[in-house]
Write a structure and sequence with these properties.
Elements lengths: L16 E10 L20 E8 L6 E6 L15 E5 L6 E8 L11 E9 H6 L4 E5 L10 E8 L5 E10 L15 E5 L5 E6 L14 E4 H5 L6 E4 L2 E4 H4 L8 E3 L3 H6 L8 E11 L3 H6 L3 E9 L23 H13 L7 E7 L1 E3 L4 E3 L2 E2 L8 E3 H13 L3 E2 L6 H12 L6 E9 L6 H11 L4 E7 L19 E2 L2 E2 L5 E5 L10 H13 L2 H11 L21
Parallel strand pairs: 17-18, 17-24, 24-25, 25-28
Antiparallel strand pairs: 1-4, 1-8, 2-3, 2-5, 5-6, 7-8, 9-12, 9-16, 10-11, 10-13, 13-14, 15-16, 18-21, 18-22, 19-20, 19-23, 26-27
GO molecular function: calcium-dependent phospholipid binding; metal ion binding
GO cellular component, one term: plasma membrane
GO biological process, one term: cellular response to calcium ion
Length: about 550
């Protein structure tokens, strides 16, 4: 078991939500040219779908599972589901291959290939009604039909447990006082190891502590297995035992193995009593996405002179013909994940801290595409193109002011507070903020809006001042007013660079950390405003589909 000193509540990962993906295919007859004819009087197929997943930072595909084989159909609706762990902060690449089963071999390569498609789990969940339809491809010059995915969140992933515990007659540990007790929860893993999943507050100088009630997702306690054991200090229980609530069965002896082996008359080191326990269901991030909530992604890039001359290889903005610079990597890492949850794929992109043409005035919120009426770029590739073009036309200058861009996005967020949209601002910078006072005020004002801010620091500078904005420990405040919610996440990109030079892995590590808090930040806004997710959008197929091959 891990020692108590190893516990870091900010880095303790909660098991992912589990998503159930259902697969159907339509109009598969075109692929029959490449299949063996099983029934000479019929052109029916015996289709099966194979799912492959791709590891983070690798190009290798691993088979995850297969549907059942359905006989004699060109339009199969498969019953067997794929159940996947879902991480919003990861780009989870999926590949679906369709085959016609024309022998008894379990080797999939022995069967006839009918087509394939690629997508991410985020694309399925982020599509209207969590329903995604794609054209199958892979057979040159032939129509292979369509494949349809629908996603559902497993119901037991939305349960949260609220409990309260107390202890009596604990051992005295402090030389001049009593003890400062607290509880640590450990969840057992399938391999016999233990993962810390919760720590209570410390109660000072007492042998009879009563801890505050706390709430924790059930999946964090037992990962959906209601009989797995949780280590609490030095006694064991299970989720099922806890769920019985307060009773004579939920008074636990606290045992100290060392004392038990040393003292023959040792009984226990006190008892812990469960005072209350209840389980409720709450709305999840997936509920809001399936109900149509869109993530609006905005980018702001630092064009101050401290980045160095973009024409020089030492510049943080240097455009190497061989690899992306840190700005492009951060933008691509975060943007490629968030774009799955934005239906129009139009992203406003701004720069700050540069002199812009034609008059050479310094701007702290200029559109990268030079269109002052419409700063939208088409998809992440469009943002990257506008960024590269902007480097050729503006003069890097200064200072590094954050407040103008934050206020600009906040104005947009203030116009849509009904839960239909949530705004995510990515700011990439190389140095210390020049307008910290104004930025703090902007963050405090934005904390009451449907908005989150991600700040990525690039380069070797010290970013200590940035930690003031990241309210994990202490909420940022301005003019005596504290932020309503913690909406800022700051990280220095250098902490995520892969030593072997694998840019894909570096980007995946960055995205995983900076995006991990977005779902909870979205939920905290919705909860604070009493907003419930709308019913899932219709899963019915469109009445007319135009396919271009």
């Amino acid at each position: 078991m891990a020692s108590i000193e190893e516990f870091d509540p900010l880095n303790t990962s909660v098991p992912a939500t589990k998503i159930e993906v259902t697969v159907s295919c339509r109009r598969m007859a075109g692929g029959l040219i490449y299949t063996k004819i099983i029934d000479c009087f019929s052109l029916s197929l015996f289709p099966v779908v194979v799912l492959y997943v791709q590891g983070i930072g690798t190009k290798e595909w691993r088979e995850f599972g297969r549907t059942e084989v359905i006989e004699n159909t060109l339009n199969p609706d498969f019953v067997r589901k794929f159940v996947l762990d879902y991480f919003f902060e990861e780009k989870q690449n999926l590949r679906f291959d369709v085959y016609n089963v024309d022998s008894r071999s379990s080797n999939i390569s022995k069967h006839s290939f009918l087509g394939q498609t690629f997508c991410t789990l985020g694309e399925i969940i982020g599509s209207a009604g969590a329903r995604l339809e794609r054209v199958l491809s892979g057979i040159p010059g032939k129509k292979c039909g369509n494949i349809i995915f629908t996603a559902e969140e497993l119901s037991n992933c939305r349960d949260i447990a609220t409990m309260q515990l107390c202890a009596n007659k604990l051992d005295k540990k402090d030389f001049f006082g009593k003890s400062d007790p607290f509880l640590v929860f450990y969840r057992s893993n399938e391999d016999g190891t233990f993962t810390i999943c919760h720590k209570t507050e410390v109660i000072k100088n007492t042998l009879n502590p009563v801890w505050q009630p706390f709430t924790i997702p059930v999946r964090a306690l037992c990962n959906g297995d209601y009989d797995s054991h949780d280590f609490i200090g030095e006694f064991t229980t299970s989720y099922r035992e806890l769920s019985r609530g307060q009773s004579q069965f939920n008074v636990y002896e606290v045992l100290n193995p060392k004392k038990k082996g040393r003292k023959k008359k040792y009984v226990n080191s006190g008892t812990v009593t469960l005072l209350s326990f209840k389980v409720e269901s709450e709305y999840t991030f997936v509920d809001f996405i399936r109900g149509g909530t869109q993530l609006n992604f905005t980018v702001a890039i630092d064009f101050t002179a401290s980045n160095g001359n973009p024409a020089q290889p030492t510049s943080l903005h240097y455009m190497s013909p061989y690899q992306m610079n840190a700005y492009a990597m951060a933008l691509k890492a975060v943007g490629e994940i968030i774009q799955d949850y934005d239906s129009d794929k139009l992203f406003p992109a701004y720069g700050f801290g540069a002199k812009i043409p034609p008059d050479g005035k310094v701007s702290h919120a200029f559109p990268l595409n030079t269109d002052c009426e419409n700063a939208n770029c088409v998809a992440i590739e469009g943002v990257l193109e506008a960024y590269y073009e902007c480097l050729r036309t503006v003069q890097l200058y200064g200072p590094t002011n954050f407040a103008p861009v934050i206020n600009q996005v906040a104005q947009c967020a203030a116009d849509v507070t009904d839960g239909s949209q949530y705004f995510v601002l990515l700011m990439i910078t190389d140095g210390v903020i020049s307008d910290m006072v104004q930025t703090k005020e902007a963050v405090v004002n934005a904390s009451s809006l449907p908005m989150s801010i991600i700040i990525v620091g690039v380069g070797p500078a010290e970013f200590d001042a940035m930690e003031e904005l990241d309210g994990d420990e202490v909420r940022v405040s301005s003019k005596g007013r504290a932020a309503e919610r913690d909406i800022v996440q700051f990280v220095p990109f250098r902490d995520y660079i892969d030593r072997s030079g694998n840019q894909v892995l570096s980007m995946a590590r960055l995205a995983k950390d900076v995006l991990a808090e977005i779902p909870e930040q979205l939920l905290s806004f919705m909860k604070s405003r009493g907003i419930e997710p709308r019913p899932a959008l219709s899963n019915s197929p469109a009445t007319h589909i135009t396919v271009h091959l």
